[in-house]
Specification:
The chain is α/β, with parallel strands linked by helices and 220 residues long. The protein has six helices and nine strands. The chain is globular. Bound molecules: S-adenosyl-L-homocysteine (SAH). The site of S-adenosyl-L-homocysteine has 25 residues, from strand 2, helix 4 and strand 4.
Length: 220
């Protein structure tokens, strides 16, 4: 029974990966997404939709991003073996798991999450799926995580009013950050720290807001 279920999820995962391949996602990211069991990161009553290419609610008014968005953000960052990566917004932990696959055992993912319940949810999901090395930390991600800075890459999975200065500071020279910016109309930016800060518009997106000191206010 369990084996049959695993086989069914695997087939669904393969279909999702084929769909993402047609969208031009890189082979490295496709392979990582083939390995991460997304059904372990969604609430139990939604597992039948785990491999659909749209966002799903994970509680507390938050969402796990659509697979194509996770794939695109990982591709834009050009994640490499051994990278030290900071994620803002752990949510379900799924995106962090895909990053962990791409950077390998030599790399390290730190993910900051402000909602305690989601810190627990993501940690539990990551452990279940075998990503025990990922560190989920409670806090305001707009302040970054200075203890382990600087980072090769920063992935922000909620929409900011503007680029939070601490994140720019904590990015290595030559490092890259992906970040959605905007309140209602949001744009995904690729930011590079190379002779100053270069900011490139990528596409229109829909994310939950980044709250906190350099984010939106809860009553905004
Ligand atoms: N990457 C997640 C998707 C997260 S949705 C996944 O793969 O499931 C965005 C998350 O950002 C939410 O969990 C929300 O609580 C969190 N968030 C919003 N503002 C934050 C802040 N200032 N610091 C840390 N996390 C924040």
């Amino acid at each position: 029974m369990v084996q049959e279920e695993e086989q069914r999820y695997k087939e669904e995962r393969m279909r999702l990966v084929e769909h993402l391949r047609r969208q031009g996602i890189s082979e490295a990211v496709l392979q990582a997404m083939m390995r991460v069991k997304r059904h372990l990161f969604v609430p139990p009553h939604l597992t039948d939709q785990a491999y659909a290419d749209y966002p799903l609610p994970i509680g507390e008014g938050q969402t796990i991003s659509a697979p194509h968005m996770v794939a695109l953000m990982c591709d834009l960052l050009e994640l490499k073996r051994g990278d030290k990566v900071l994620e803002i917004g752990a949510g379900s932990g799924y995106h962090a798991a895909v990053i962990a696959e791409l950077i390998g055992e030599e790399g390290q993912v730190y993910s900051v999450e402000r909602i305690t319940w989601l810190v627990e949810f993501s940690t539990k999901n990551l452990n279940k799926a075998g990503y025990t090395k990922v560190r989920v930390i409670t806090g305001d991600g707009t302040l970054g995580l200075p203890e382990y800075a600087p980072y090769d890459k920063i992935s922000v999975t909620c929409a900011a009013p503007d680029l939070p200065p601490p994140l720019l500071e904590q990015l290595k020279a030559g490092g890259k950050m992906v970040i959605p910016v905007g309140k209602i109309r949001q744009v995904l930016y690729l930011v590079e720290k190379k002779n100053g800060i270069k900011k490139e518009r990528k596409c229109d997106v829909v994310f939950v807001p980044l709250l906190g000191k350099y984010g939106f206010r809860e009553d905004d």
